[in-house]
UniProtKB/TrEMBL annotation, chain A:
Alphabetic keyword roster: Cell membrane, Membrane, Transmembrane, Transmembrane helix
Pfam families with a match to the protein in the record: BPD_transp_2
Claim: Cell wall biogenesis/degradation is one of the keywords in the record: no
Name of the protein in its database record: Branched-chain amino acid ABC transporter permease
Subcellular localization, as worded in the UniProt entry: Cell membrane
InterPro entries (alphabetical): ABC_transp_permease (IPR001851), LivM-like (IPR043428)
Top-rank taxon, per record: Bacteria
Membrane topology: Multi-pass membrane protein
Protein species of origin: Variovorax ginsengisoli
Membrane-spanning ranges: 6-27, 34-60, 80-101, 108-125, 155-174, 195-222, 242-267, 288-310
Main location: membrane
């Protein structure tokens, strides 16, 4: 089972790499968007699924990564080698500050505090001239590195795909490592981990900073794709939606985050398509809200949970990461 | 800053703080007693503001009557909502509560958009509260704002009395400190839940109605209030009414004076306050150690 659980995602990546260039520009753009969201969702899975920390402010790191990319590239554009570390570094730095404070609390306090600090970052970009205020700012030239030019849609596709594969691989490694085992222990019983002599706070903070940096990576890719950023990226709707994605897919599985990102994007498209739902499409927020409520009520274990009902072995989490 | 300005800003701080208290007290009690984190609480504030917009042309002069009618409507709405929706959330974990109440916000926002549209509306203060009175030689202060503060003081005192001096309040306090024990003592906890929830909705809606003539009525107004109320609850300590009052006033002062001294970064002031409290007392000013 263990081997299968890694070979399917790898197979998907290969299929995408081979067939990606054949996609129409519209479809390819959508796939890129979904892959970026998958990276964002994976970064949150490290916190929620692996460590048991429910953060409702994850969009802040995504937005900061995107803003750092645009602000760091001048009128002549910038190098990926410079902008990528800048984006991930800025997001990680804010995650370090927010994590150091919010990890002093737990449970429902943690949810509220992460949301509040994300809102603070939102206000910084929304109310000050730093990032162009509420309108956001444009990037003059997309980042480049040697022959890689994010202006080119094929380059964009492969860079994002590579980032997704690397993120997935990194998290899979973390899960199997001693560090990942400690995080799983914290999720299951923090008290016991502390009693066993683990510096629980340090482990949680490390997870928080890594998750922030990876969200910054997603933000970098988004800014490179869109060429524009605005404060809405940091808005709490995004934090809510990404949390929803990982639940939708199935918490406690890396695949779940990706499946959730795909499913959520499709659901949103579906609910706002006139051809499919008729006049309800104008009120997709209403149907989406009802769908969310129904989904969480009926399928708390996500889409992977459906598979588990049909064949219990297929969705068994990897060893040491039972959810 | 001369004394007159200072006085006006103090009045503004108290008035804003007390308004926040009305919303935050419901939030903190609902969490403290039912253990539910309710993201949709801001929507009840929005509901109140839109009720004021819809009802004020009907009632005209009779502003107080309108408030009373609105409170009753909101309480009934809250009672039904608890029965139909929230009572199913108690057994679920925080993550699911967050997502389901998030879904509820989307539903409320879209219903608002369908029913009233997305325009920004103004609500007129009742005729007998129009105009201002002089404060010193240069400054003046609107009568309506003074009325709002007074109404909030009356409500805060009333709430304090109910929570600390009545039998119902005793059950509420007991529920906030140990839910299972209260259930074990044979108190009808479901009824208590329903009453507290309905009261929380009514208070938030009342705050929205009182605020409507001062701030305009606009889409998304619930979310900003919700997040500030989270800050209030974190500062004050979950489940503590006194903590919510102290924290609301603190937030009111920091926010109002922040706008005076640091116009551009005023949005950040309250979060810095929250950060300081988290460093000093992570469980909140009046919270129990968690």
């Amino acid at each position: 089972m263990q081997r299968l659980s890694h070979s399917i995602p790898l197979l998907c990546a290969i299929v995408l790499a081979v067939f990606g260039p054949m996609l129409s520009p519209y479809l390819s753009d959508l796939v890129v968007k979904v892959m970026i969201l998958s990276i964002f969702a994976l970064s949150l899975e490290l916190l929620v699924g692996m460590t048991g920390l429910v953060s409702l402010g994850h969009a802040a790191f995504y937005g900061i990564g995107a803003y750092a990319t645009v602000l760091g590239s001048g009128k002549d554009g910038g190098s990926i080698a410079l902008l990528l570390p800048l984006a991930m570094g800025s997001a990680a730095a804010y995650a370090l500050a927010v994590g150091a404070l919010s990890l002093r609390t737990r449970g429902v306090y943690f949810i509220m505090v992460t949301l509040a600090f994300a809102q603070m970052a939102f206000f910084v970009f929304h109310d000050t001239a730093l990032g162009g205020g509420s309108d956001g700012i444009y990037m003059y030239i997309r980042p480049t590195l040697g022959a890689l030019d994010m202006e080119n849609r094929y380059t964009q596709f492969y860079v994002v795909l590579a980032a997704l594969v690397l993120t997935y691989g990194l998290l899979a490694l973390i899960r199997r490592s001693r560090f990942g085992a400690a995080l799983a222990g914290i999720r299951v019983n923090e008290q016991r981990m502390r009693a066993a002599g683990f510096a629980v706070y340090g482990y949680k903070l490390a997870a928080f900073v890594i998750a922030g940096a990876l969200a910054g990576l997603a933000g970098f890719l988004l800014a490179s794709r869109d060429g524009v950023v605005n404060p809405e990226l940091l808005a709490w709707h995004n934090s809510g939606e990404v949390l929803l994605m990982i639940i939708l897919g199935g918490l406690g599985h890396l695949r779940g985050a990706v499946i959730g990102a795909v499913a959520f994007t499709l659901l949103k498209e579906l609910l706002s398509t006139h051809a499919l739902v008729g006049p309800l499409a104008d009120h997709w927020q209403l149907t989406l809200g009802l769908a969310i409520i129904a989904f969480v009520a009926l399928l708390p274990k996500g889409i992977i949970g459906i598979a588990a009902r049909i064949s219990p072995a297929a969705a068994k989490p990897a060893k040491g990461a039972a959810a | 800053m001369d004394f007159g300005t200072f006085l006006v800003q103090c009045l503004n701080s108290v008035q804003y703080g007390l308004l926040l208290f009305l919303v935050a007290s419901g939030l903190t009690l609902i969490f403290g007693i039912m253990g539910v984190i309710n993201l949709a609480h801001g929507s009840f504030y929005m509901l109140g503001a839109y009720m004021a917009f819809a009802l004020s042309p009907l009632f005209g002069d009779q502003f107080i009557v309108m408030l009373a009618v609105g409170v009753v409507l909101a309480a009934v709405f809250g009672y039904l909502l608890e029965w139909a929706f929230f009572s199913y959330l108690y057994q679920r974990d925080h993550l699911q509560q967050v997502l389901m109440t998030y879904g509820l916000i989307l539903v409320f926002e879209e219903l608002r958009s369908i029913l009233v549209g997305n325009d920004v509306h103004g609500v007129k203060a009742p005729p007998w509260l129009e105009g201002s009175f002089a404060l010193g030689n240069l400054m003046s202060y609107p009568w309506y704002r003074l009325f709002a503060s007074a109404a909030c003081v009356v409500l805060a005192v009333g709430l304090y009395y109910v929570v600390n001096r009545t039998r119902l309040g005793m059950m509420i306090r007991a529920g906030a400190s140990n839910r299972d024990m209260v259930r074990g003592l044979g108190i009808d906890i479901r009824r208590l839940y329903r009453i507290v929830f309905a009261a929380g909705v009514a208070l938030a809606a009342l705050a929205g109605m009182i605020a409507a003539p001062m701030s305009s009525v606009y889409p998304g107004m619930g979310a900003s209030v919700l997040i500030i109320c989270f800050v209030v609850v974190v500062i004050g300590g979950i489940g503590s009414i006194t903590g919510a009052l102290v924290a609301s006033l603190l937030v009111g002062f920091v926010d109002t004076f922040g706008k005076v001294f640091f116009a551009e970064l005023s949005g950040m002031g309250v979060y810095v306050l929250m950060a300081i409290v988290l460093i000093w007392r992570p469980e909140g000013l009046m919270g129990r150690k968690v």
